[in-house]
Design brief:
This protein has an eleven-stranded mixed beta sheet with strand order 1-9-18-17-16-15-14-13-10-11-12, sandwiched between helices. It has an eight-stranded mixed beta sheet with strand order 4-3-2-5-6-7-8-19, sandwiched between helices. The chain has two domains: 220 residues, 3-Layer(aba) Sandwich (Rossmann fold); 273 residues, UDP-N-acetylmuramoyl-L-alanine:D-glutamate ligase, CATH 3.40.1190. The protein is 39% helix and 16% strand. Strand 14, helix 12 and strand 15 form a beta-alpha-beta unit. Helix 9 packs across helix 15, helix 15 packs across helix 16 and helix 16 crosses helix 18. The mean pLDDT is 95. It has 514 residues and is α/β, with parallel strands linked by helices. The chain is elongated and about 85 Å long. 50% of the residues are buried. It has 18 helices and 19 strands.
Length: 514
């Protein structure tokens, strides 16, 4: 699913109005009808008090139109206007005047904190104060209004986006954003729904289709793409009946050091479970017995050193390489990493953990990274590579610049992991807080290596690998709970994650937080 900027969404609206021969007001009626249908299907005429808070722009116009429809269908509705300026949109005024046709109780004009209404715990608040076009912080008594609404126990429903939140810009003021219980967003979710600093205001959302112009949507390059089950299904490559292990590649997993052999064991097993035909682990001599015992399906090659990697020398020709898991940060290991980078050609590489830390220590290694390598840092490793960032959006911009400069694919791990490939961003929808556990990242690197071994290209292996990793984690957490989830359990559910791809999707609200 494509995600668009606020500017692109306005252009989509304009193109829709032009090509469909309608007015802005007609599109607003379409939006209000969708909102009404959603609410009516759940309340079924229940006389719970509904408080609709409207701004004086088009988002407020949506609220007025919705209020009219609810009133006409017998609901107990009160409408409030945040009357903080004399400037009003044309559609707002049209819908404001149409309220006359439905009720003698006109919307209540609020001009200060003294106008805030009493709201009971069982009431419903509908937020139509500000939309995606907000470009400056909310101040004064309107900010107080949002804080007042946030303090209420009533269920809070935001229309399109919680008031005070931008679609694709940093937070203007975290204390002036409505904390919605649920958001009904138009056409597609917004980038801010998926980032840690802003996504906390959108715990759940659903998408309402306004029938935007299909040609514009198809031809316009989005600011990001959302990867869910329908997209992931298309990534899957079915196996041939007459294939053999040689058809599915040979992954070389390089890592391990004294006390950190588990990391390379996890990555190796994950590569096998993801579908690699063969897996060899290149480890220090002291790790050989551990690998052969813990993952008997994996072959091993050993460094001359007992405790850490001093030289990375092999005669085999791997289909792909994953390096860094448990590798340690010994100076000699860094030199061996640089030597490996220099001699690699046309072999896709996953770079993780200590390999990333060695690169952050020795910036000359950054210039040797094979093109289209896949970097899988956790937040600390990412910060060592990119430097500090001001906010989540600044982090994305730094990641895009790094990806373009070094021609690599970069994963920003999180509740919704992002895959950054130049200007392109792919947002994952699977995963849960239980996956914040030791070894989870090693499993992810192994899964990606397993996909690369099977012939998936670097970008597809990364996006699909992140999805499968999160899906396996979800299935495991469903059985064991968040707290008991371990990296080994995630591996055990990789096969079920493949099967889950083709199960019928249930119609449930989308959780924007993990």
């Amino acid at each position: 699913m494509k995600l668009f900027s606020s500017k692109q969404l306005y252009e989509a609206e304009n193109q829709t109005i032009k090509k469909q021969g309608i007015e802005t007001f007609d599109l607003m009626e379409r939006a209000a009808t969708q909102l009404f249908t959603w609410i009516d299907s759940r309340l079924k005429g229940a006389q719970v008090p509904i408080h609709i808070f409207c701004g004086i722009g088009n988002n407020g116009g949506d609220g007025l139109a919705l209020g009219r429809m609810l009133i006409n269908n017998g609901y107990n509705v009160k409408i409030y206007i945040a009357n903080f300026t004399d400037k009003r949109s044309k559609c707002f005024l049209t819908n404001y005047n149409r309220i006359k046709e439905s009720t003698k109780s006109w919307p209540i004009l609020m001009t200060s904190e003294h106008d805030f209404p009493q709201i009971q715990n069982d009431d419903i608040i509908i937020d139509c104060l500000f939309g995606i076009g907000i470009n400056r912080p909310i101040e004064g008594w309107v900010k107080q209004l949002i804080q007042y609404l946030n303090s209420q126990a009533a269920f809070k429903l935001s229309v399109d986006i919680p008031s005070g939140l931008s679609a694709n810009e940093p937070l203007l003021d975290a204390e002036a954003v409505l904390k919605a219980n649920h958001t009904l967003t138009f056409h597609s979710p917004k980038l801010s729904f998926f980032l840690p600093e802003t996504g906390v205001f959108v715990p759940y959302f659903e998408i309402l289709d306004l029938g935007f112009d299909a040609e514009y949507i198809s031809e316009t390059t989005p600011i990001a793409q959302l990867i869910a089950q329908p997209e992931a299904q298309q990534f899957y490559k079915q196996r041939s009946k007459f294939s053999h292990k040689g058809n599915y590649g040979h992954a070389l997993i390089i890592g391990g050091s004294k006390g950190k052999v588990g990391a390379v064991s996890l990555a190796s097993k994950a590569a096998l479970k993801a579908g690699a035909g063969l897996v060899t682990a290149y480890v220090p001599e002291g790790a050989n017995v551990i690998l052969q015992t813990s993952v008997p399906e994996v072959m091993t090659l050993c460094d001359n050193s007992e405790d850490y990697l001093q030289h990375i020398d092999f005669e085999m020709i791997p289909t792909c390489i994953a390096i860094g898991m448990g590798m340690g940060q010994h100076e000699q290991s860094g030199l061996a990493l640089g030597e490996l980078f220099e001699k690699l050609s046309n072999v896709p590489v996953v770079i993780d953990a200590d390999a990333l830390n060695l690169m952050a220590k020795d910036k000359s290694l950054l210039e040797k990274i094979p093109k289209q390598s896949i970097l899988t840092p956790h937040e600390g490793e990412l910060k060592r590579l990119l430097g500090a960032w001001k906010n989540d959006f600044d982090k994305i911009e730094k990641a895009k610049a790094f990806s373009k400069k070094h021609e690599v694919i970069l994963i920003i791990k999180g509740a919704h992991s992002l895959v950054v490939n130049g200007e392109a961003i792919y947002i994952n929808t699977t995963g849960n807080p239980g996956m914040a556990t030791a070894g989870s990242g090693d499993v992810l690197s192994g899964i990606i290596a397993g996909l690369l071994a099977q012939g998936y290209d670097a970008l597809l292996a990364t996006v699909f690998g992140v999805y499968l990793h999160g899906s396996a984690g979800n299935l495991a957490a469903f059985e064991d709970g968040y707290e008991a989830l371990t990296a080994s359990t995630i591996i055990d559910y990789i096969g079920k994650a493949y099967l889950e791809l083709f199960k019928q999707e249930t119609e449930e609200p989308t959780a924007s937080q993990g």
